[in-house]
Amino acid sequence: MERLAISLLDGTNAVLVLMLVSLGLAIIFGLMKVINMAHGEFIMLGAYGLMALTQAGLPFWPALALAPLIVVAIGLVAEELVIRRTYTRLLDTILATWGLSLVLRQAIILLYGPGSHAVAAPDLGTVALFGSPYPAYRLVVMGLSLAIIAGTVAVFFRTRFGLAARAVIANRDMAACLGIDTRRLDRFTFAFGAGLAGLAGAVMAPLISIDPAAGLGWLVPGFLAILVGGLGSLAGPLAGAAGIGGLDSFTSTLASPIAAQLVVFVVAIAVIRLRPDGLLARRRREA
Amino acid sequence: MPEPALIIRDLVAGYGDGIVLDGLSLTVGEGEALALLGRNGVGKTTLLKTIMGLIRPKSGEIRFRDRRIDGHPPFEIARTKIGYVPQGREVFGELTVEENLLLGDLKAADAALAYEYFPALAAKRRDPAGRLSGGQQQQLAIGRALMGRPALLLLDEPSEGIQPSIVADIALILGRIVRDTGLALILVEQNIAMVLALCTRAAFIDHGRVVGEETAGAIKADPDLVETRLTL
Amino acid sequence: MTNRVALAALVVFALLPLVGSAGLTADLAIYFAYALFAVSLAFVWGQAGLLSLGHGVFFGVGAYAMSILTLGMTPGLTNVHSTWLGLVGAVAASALAAGLTGLLCFAGKGLAGAFFGVVTLAIAFIAERLATSSTWLGGLNGLMNVPPITLGLNGEGRAIFDALPLYYISLGILAAVMAGLSWLLAGRFGALLAAIRDNELRIWSLGADVRRIKLQAYMLSGAVAGLAGALFVTQFGFASPSLIGFSLSLDVLIWVAIGGRDSLIAAALGAIMVRLLESRLADLMGPVWPLALGLMFMGSVIFFPRGLFGSMIAALERPGRRQDS
User: Fold this and answer.
1) Which chains touch A (3 or more CB pairs under 8 A)?
2) Which residues of A touch B79 (CB under 8 A)?
3) Is the pLDDT of residue C63 over 60?
4) A182 in helix, strand or coil?
5) Closest to B118 in 3D by CA, of B130, B106, B131, B100
6) Rounded to whole angstroms, how far apart are CA atoms C228 and C40?
7) How far apart are CA C228 and CA C230, in angstroms?
8) In angstroms, what CA-CA distances link C168 with C34, C71, C173, C244, C284?
9) How far from B209 is each of A16, A166, B82, B232, CA to CA, in Å?
10) A177 vs chain B: nearest CA distance in angstroms?
11) For an engineered disulfide with A210, which of A76, A117, B79, C120 has Cβ 3.0 to 4.6 Å away?
């Protein structure tokens, strides 16, 4: 019984982080029509950033706040140098960001070597849940993830900035004709997506093995979540992440991680075949 | 003749490698309402899109209030107080009426300016724009452009697909707006009644150029004038 | 022009062993297998517009199939060691894999180009994990001691170890397949593929079944990639999960992007050039080499979308005339 509860909690943890990842990917794709193949590396850069900052002597929590900002800076540079030059050629942005992913990975290897590293979680003790001790830090991770997701949704639906973003997503040309600076919005959006990824990585850093190739393990599930959930709204990627993440945790615990990957993939493809626009795609009502 | 607001000289533009506007020249005065008449495909919509920056001209010049705007991106042109109501309205269907209007001026406290001229919209402010009728969407699109307090408004076939009584209502409201705000207007329209209600001058477009001009008075006096001009 | 360049390249490579070192000859013999792999990707990407991010799967399936068949591992047919059967099996297996992938992705509304790429990547990812965890396939180490090309009907007879004959066999296969694909592309099939790549709407009016053509192109590409994998493994001697997965998929993408996706010869030359550079520079530059390669890749996508050899061929085509994008 306890093991089930722990598994559920861990699973929820994984789902929430996957939601963060999918949200970032979906926002970048929805607004800029860019498939950011370097998203996994942005996550890893967040983790490495946290590691570097704590190694440099910064206490954990300030490092956690700062690490995503490092990734935001990298994202802004990438947007200017790479995305801006290719986003008229859709397929080439995939290649360009795929190349960026490789370059970032190799840069990390040059700085930190190909092996894996670890960062210690802050000692917050444990919380008694369902009769057994559960690490408090993991609860913090869940809480933070929820807060960020809620915050993102709020920004999108309650602010003028979010309104502008939703307009650009719906009809870029018309939004531009209303005076919205779509280029600046692109930069903001990409930086925001990178920041979300960096935050996910930084927050997860004490819980995972930090190595250069780990980012890819998030990219594929992140995209599958978007494909399954649909891109019509913010709810789509979140629902997709919940489904994919949940299925993955569940199968992983029941069988094995490799079986989980296979099952998740097969189910995802089946869903996409049956509903090519995703589960939550709204039927478009033509004006 | 009022102060020239928009001066277009020898404009050449088109899609891809094609040429649609072939050395078009036109002047619109401050506060003037000009109609663009012509058969389908002669370049009226292309002209509006080029003024708005959606199409980059291959050569020629567009000046608005003595500043060159050709080659600038649409958002900059919108910010020089040129508003655009495209063919087909292009309202944001998933956003509410109020959200659509606020997009016309993201800094505005509210959409009162638009509601003043289009009170019917106020009643539907929380409805998704996609659920409105054609006539209401047209009002929404105009109201949205109005929020930006334009000095020049570009209207592309506003009467298309709307029943005549609503068209008449919209024409009346537009007339009020023009009188109240003194904005200039370029109206692409097939509906001559609307043209006569709003405009003082009409330019005839053919093969990507202005081939003639008439005053509204002349057209009113001779209803066949438009037909003649268009078939030449 | 591409045909002339291809012919010229063939002549150069045919004569190269006369002046090159034995080491170079041996290296190139393997690089021709890589070049064949690059050709398979250029065929499906440059000609049909299908960006396959996980193309390594088909190379790997071919390599593993060849290994299984020539090592006598085939369940129920353990006395089969035939090179010939291995080649047939490799091509069939990889074509089948491509067919399954294609059915998955092209059926129904079909996956938009970008997401198709991500799905193929996911497949490569999973395939590599499966191969690594399969004890029958040798797990992480893979299958070793894969026999070289043996001319007899069932693994007896003359085995080809020497660099020079391997060189000409590889070159011969590469040239023959390229010629065959070029011939296909020059005909109706090529025109249909171009229509798909450029604008699918037009092709409905040509009365062609878009999905079926995509499937055919993808299976053909998979078959060629499998052949390349089989050819590779007979020289390399072992098949490992790295051949089926993500890093080789990325490698071939880099070769084709740098060489040129628009023509088969540009892609082939790209593969050979990058591998040659790598063998000479990787030791010198150490861990900086992959970074440099990544930068070259990005640079070519952003600034030279036609690729190095693609740009050169375009320049030769009409010197001074600007190509339309």
Assistant:
1) B, C
2) 179
3) yes
4) helix
5) B100
6) 9
7) 5
8) 15, 24, 8, 26, 30
9) 59, 38, 22, 13
10) 5
11) A117
Q: How many CA atoms lie within 13 A of C248 on its CB side?
A: 28
Give dist(CA A16, CA C30) in Å, integer: 46
Q: pLDDT at residue C182 above 60?
A: yes
Q: Tell me if residue C67 falls in helix, strand or coil.
A: helix
Domains of chain B, start order: 1-43+56-81+150-232 (3.40.50.300), 88-149 (no CATH)
Which tokens is A230 given?
Answer: 């649909």
**In the Cβ-directed half-sphere of B216, how many Cα atoms lie within 13 Å?**
16
pLDDT at res. C208: 60
Nearest beta carbon to residue B99 from set A163, A179, A180: A163
* Chains touching C, CB cut-off 8 Å, 3+ pairs: A
- Amino acid identity for residue A223 in this structure: F
CA distance A95 to C15: 36
Helix (H, G, I), strand (E, B) or coil at B12: strand
Token pair in block for residue C81: 């060691």
Structure tokens at B178: 């023009």
Strand partners, A55: none
What pLDDT was estimated at residue C195?
Answer: 82
Least confident of A47-51, A102-106, A211-215, C201-205: C201-205
| CA B157/CA B145 separation, integer angstroms | 15
Asked if C253 has any chain A CB less than 8 Å from its own CB, the reply is: yes
**In chain C, what percentage of residues exceed pLDDT 90?**
32
User: CA-nearest residue of chain A to C131?
Assistant: A258
Tell which residue, B11, B150, B12, B9, has the closest CA to residue B84.
Answer: B150
Query: Is the Cβ–Cβ distance between C222 and C129 less than 8 Å?
Result: no
Mutation site for B-interface testing, chosen from A174, A180, A181, A285 by largest number of B Cβ within 10 Å? A174
Specify the pTM: 0.84
Dihedral angle over CA of C30, C34, C37, C39, nearest 10: -110
What whole-number distance in Å separates Cα of residue B130 and Cα of residue A170? Answer: 12
Query: Residue A178 and residue B103: Cβ atoms within 8 Å?
Result: yes
Q: Cα separations (Å) of B118 from B2, B101, B143, B163, B168?
A: 29, 11, 7, 17, 14
**What confidence score (pLDDT) does residue A287 get?**
30
Bridge partners of B188?
A: B36, B156
With CA atoms as reference, the chain A residue closest to B84 would be: A177
Q: What is the mean pLDDT of chain A?
A: 87
Q: How far is C89 from chain A (nearest CA, A)?
A: 25
The pLDDT tens digits of the residues spanning A218-261 come to 888 898 898 888 877 788 889 999 999 888 888 888 888 778 88
The 10s digit of each residue's pLDDT in A134-191 is: 888 888 888 999 999 999 999 988 999 999 999 998 899 999 999 999 989 999 989 9
Task: Give me the pLDDT at residue A108, please.
Answer: 92
